[in-house]
Design a protein that fits this description.
heterodimer; A: 267 residues; alpha/beta; Rossmann fold; 9 helices; 14 strands; B: 331 residues; mainly alpha; globular
């Protein structure tokens, strides 16, 4: 069993190339420890989602990815799912399930062939619905929920796996600021209890505010890895996103925040 | 969905089971010849017993199995493909099956029998398995089956097979055209217990494989990536659905021909009544599809008595409008 300081996720080297494409993903050493909140940022096409999918085992990869000391590709998927939760971008269902039904699917790694629940499973469902603040939505159809509520239902579904590592691909995409903040606050609460959270986001300000560690990606590689004030710098951001972004400091936390730069000609 | 207990599952399936039992009990009593149950069960033999035990009962059992299989495969495919229009014939199995059957009808040199199988059935099965193998080879990837490729390959194979059937019709002796058309309409006549038992060695393993995927299909309706995240072995599930659904469809089509709409409508009806959990949808579709086809067959036997209408015509005439109404309500 890993101790508290040993990494939950450990990668020495990771390479991937999509079939019939020249684009390559390649990164060197990466370790994620218990309780860390890590944001992966970068422009479109920089490899953020690919990185997450490789860790989740959704994309096949020959390089070893260690999860609590075990190679993911040599473990049964059902066993891996007890440790690793993965929420892809824009999850949606073909059918109009009730919220509780979606959440309950997260217990799959623990249930038998018929998928029936015992008392512990039911307690876990109640617990994760309380954590994600969706208890009152349990019998509502997914089509009756707002975008923010739906995201929290899917988050609860992944938390029902009782993972120690949570991978989230743009979970607050298209949500209003209130729901974005609410969602990240839930993640931070989980991280305080030891969950390792790795989240892909396009929102640099949310990443800076909520995540203690940020990975900046560009053209398939990690070009910076560190605290927000080490990664979100003029030079790094210009390298990844071009020079249209202005940096400032959050008036309360002092962490870096970004704004669009005023075009000199337009002004 | 997953919060359902075994008892709740049993209660939710009970009405479908009741309906299938009623259809199975009532249908043998219906037909162009009226029969006396007293005489049939008197033990003295006679025409009533002959009609009840050796003509109608095996036919009713076949209708239950064929309708049930098509409906359950349809339910499974709709869930896996995340497509409400998916049906048992989506994989192109029926196209291959039809080409095999038509070849066996058109070429006199292929008229033979082996055990309980006619050459039409054997060639139909061979055609179905050839299509399945071809489509699987096209769509299978190391990380899973490519669903879009599978759908497109199935459609393409169906079109190719349609062309081949037209060619075979063109070169066939006119003497065989009626038999060809009759097979292509789908029907349940000319069946005995021997034909029925010959169906089971393929049908039971096929259905058995499908039943192992009920829980996983629920996850696949959320998409491949989220299903993998939940711990589902997506590739293994896809293969079980493909092989189980393909083999079961091939088995029933080889004996009853391509009977349409049962596999499309019954799953939608069960979802509308009982929700979206495939632990109910799949067995519920099996029971409802079986009951539906059994009653359609009773109608086919009596609507224009003493002539019989092919049951495929009845299912299409009932199923088409029902499906359109479902689509209109969805939109």
């Amino acid at each position: 069993m890993p101790n508290e300081t040993s990494p939950r996720v450990s990668i020495e080297r990771l390479r991937y190339r999509y079939p019939q494409s020249d684009w390559r993903f390649e990164t060197s050493e990466f370790h994620a420890r218990a309780g860390e909140t890590i944001a992966i940022i970068g422009p479109n096409g920089s490899g953020k989602s690919t990185f997450l999918k490789l860790i989740a085992g959704v994309l096949p990869c020959g390089d070893p990815i260690m999860l609590d000391g075990q190679r993911i590709d040599r473990s049964r998927r059902r066993e891996t799912a007890r440790t690793l939760g993965y929420l892809p971008q824009d999850p949606h269902s073909e059918y109009d399930y009730r919220a509780l039904e979606i959440v309950s699917l997260g217990r799959y790694p623990y249930t038998g062939p018929g998928g029936f629940f015992d008392e512990h499973d039911c307690r876990v469902l109640d617990d994760v619905m309380a954590k994600t603040e969706i208890e009152t939505l349990r019998d509502r159809r997914m089509s009756q929920l707002s975008g923010g509520e739906r995201r929290r239902v899917f988050l609860a579904s992944v938390l029902a796996q009782e993972p120690s590592v949570l991978l989230l691909d743009e979970p607050t995409n298209a949500l209003d600021p209130h729901h974005q903040i609410r969602f990240f606050n839930i993640l931070i609460e989980q991280a305080k209890q030891g969950l390792t959270v790795i989240v892909v986001t396009h929102d640099l300000n949310l990443a800076s505010h909520f995540c203690e560690r940020i990975l900046l990606m560009h053209q398939g590689s990690v070009i910076a890895d560190g605290r927000a004030d080490e990664v979100i710098t003029e030079a790094r951001i210009a390298q990844a996103y071009g020079d249209g972004i202005l940096l400032a400091r959050h008036p309360q936390t002092g962490r870096p925040v970004v704004f669009p730069k005023q075009d000199a000609e337009a002004s | 969905m997953t919060v359902m207990t075994r008892r709740e599952l049993a209660w939710k399936l009970a009405p479908y089971l009741g309906l299938a039992i009623i259809a199975a009990l009532v249908s043998p009593l219906i037909g162009s010849e009226s029969i006396s149950l007293n005489k049939a069960f008197s033990g003295a033999g006679g025409i009533d017993a002959e009609i009840f035990f050796f003509q109608r009962t095996p036919r009713v059992l076949l209708a239950l199995l064929v309708g049930g299989t098509l409906a359950m495969v349809g339910a499974c495919f709709q869930g896996m493909f995340r497509n409400p229009l998916a049906e048992p014939y989506t994989l192109g199995v029926t196209g291959g099956s039809a080409v095999g059957a038509v070849m066996a009808i058109v070429f006199p040199g292929l008229h033979f029998g082996w055990w309980a199988f006619s050459s039409v059935q054997l060639f139909s099965l061979a055609g179905a398995f050839c299509s399945m193998a071809f489509i699987f080879a096209l769509a299978n990837r190391s990380g899973g089956i490519a669903m879009n490729t599978l759908l497109l390959a199935g459609v393409t194979v169906s079109i190719l097979c349609g062309g081949l059937i037209l060619f075979l019709r063109y070169i066939a002796s006119p003497n065989y055209l009626v038999q060809m058309d009759r097979w292509l309409m789908g029907g349940l006549e000319v069946v005995g217990y021997r034909d029925l038992s010959a169906l089971l060695p393929l049908l039971l393993p096929g259905l058995g494989l499908l039943f192992t995927t009920m829980v996983e299909i629920n996850h696949l309706t959320l998409g491949r990536e989220l299903a993998m995240g939940h711990g589902v072995d997506v590739h293994s599930t896809q293969i079980r659905v493909f092989v189980g659904g393909g083999v079961a469809t091939a088995a029933v089509v080889s004996l009853a021909g391509p009977i349409g709409f049962v596999g499309l409508i019954a799953p939608h009806a069960v979802r509308r009544i009982s929700g979206f959990d495939h632990r109910i949808v799949m067995p519920g579709s099996f029971l409802l599809g079986g009951a539906f086809l059994t009653l359609c067959d009773a109608l086919a036997r009596t609507a224009m008595a003493p002539r019989e209408i092919p049951v495929g015509v009845i299912t299409a005439l009932i199923g088409g409008p029902v499906f359109i109404s479902i689509l209109l309500k969805r939109s």
